[in-house]
Write a structure and sequence with these properties.
- This protein is of the alpha+beta class and about 100 residues long.
- The protein has a single domain, classed as Glutaredoxin, CATH 3.40.30.
- The protein has three helices and six strands, in the order βαβααββββ.
- It has a four-stranded mixed β-sheet with strand order 2-1-3-4, with helices on both faces. The chain has a two-stranded antiparallel ribbon with strand order 5-6.
- A hairpin with a 5-residue loop joins β3 and β4.
- The longest helix is centred in the middle third of the chain and has 13 residues.
- It is globular, with a radius of gyration of 14 Å.
- The mean pLDDT is about 90.
Length: about 100
């Protein structure tokens, strides 16, 4: 199961959250704004994983963040088979990002 850290005030997180509805057997969405425990787990992940270095440099939170069963962490929805916010479908099911 892929864990997704996000929060409802983030449009990118909402876009991902909509894509996983009904797929609870594949994804667990963790709202980091729901309680301090969720925020603490995410903050520790963010503070210790180099995948977030650039996010921190530019003042970004780094959500949505994806944690895979093997422990790998990503901030790219495509790594989880999801579509990134701002992507627009083209003919043939391909996407581009603008």
């Amino acid at each position: 199961m892929i864990k997704i850290y996000g929060m409802p005030t983030c449009p990118c997180c909402d876009y991902v959250h909509e894509q996983i509805k009904g797929r609870e057997d594949e994804f667990e969405y963790i709202n980091i704004g729901e309680n301090i425990r969720n925020m603490s787990v995410f903050t520790k992940l963010r503070d210790t994983n180099p995948i977030f270095d650039h996010c921190k440099e530019i003042g970004d939170v780094g959500i949505p963040a994806f944690v895979f069963e093997d422990g790998r962490v990503s901030i790219d929805p495509a790594d989880a088979g999801l579509i990134e916010y701002g992507s627009t479908p083209l003919l043939g099911g391909l996407f581009y990002i603008y």
